[in-house]
Amino acid sequence: MDRPKEIIAWGRAPILLVAGLAVMAHVFPELSDRLVYDRRAVLAGEFWRILTAPLAHFSAGHLFWNLLALVAAGLAIHQAGFKGFGPAFVFAAATPGVVFLAVCPEMERYGGLSGPATAAAAFFCLKHILETEKNQAMWLIILLLMAAKIVAEAAVDAPIFARGGETPFRPLPSAHILGSLGALGAVWRSRLKPPFSGAPGACLNRGQND
After folding, report:
1. Is residue 140 situated within a structural domain?
2. From CA 201, how far away is CA 198, in angstroms rounded?
3. Does pTM surpass 0.85?
4. Where are the beta strands (DSSP E) in 2-84?
């Protein structure tokens, strides 16, 4: 089946770039402070924070678990040859900040790659379920476990894996849900068949031959 061309390419280089920037932001707290979503700063005109917030993390554990999930799932997507994840990553990275700014005035600070990491894991599982015949039950179980983790963290209002260290933080199930929605939308788009394919004149020739 013909697939739409990727608007945003995904591969090893983007994965390593995002991981490197996140590590750099954690090593240099001043940089992290300039990247994190800060509602007052955004309203004062620092709109880039909506896009850069995922690069800021609140503890080494927070960074470790997010990078572990994102890099593992991202490299798996690349290795499997699954196309179309780039838009899902951008959606998962940018949408939470927009949503929090619009409808969550109590949300003063936000950061972390958990949304994009969730998007990557969900995208990989969905692609396996829909495009391969191998271990479909296993990938479905993983998706269900991911959903259970989101529900559990929302119920206890604490992260299951990452810990806040000196800077306590709360999990944001909404960011994980948005990441999952981004993955679902990207998988749906990647499975769309263009109305016409082949050479530029193929559709004209097809009409003449009918």
Report:
1. yes
2. 8
3. no
4. 37-38
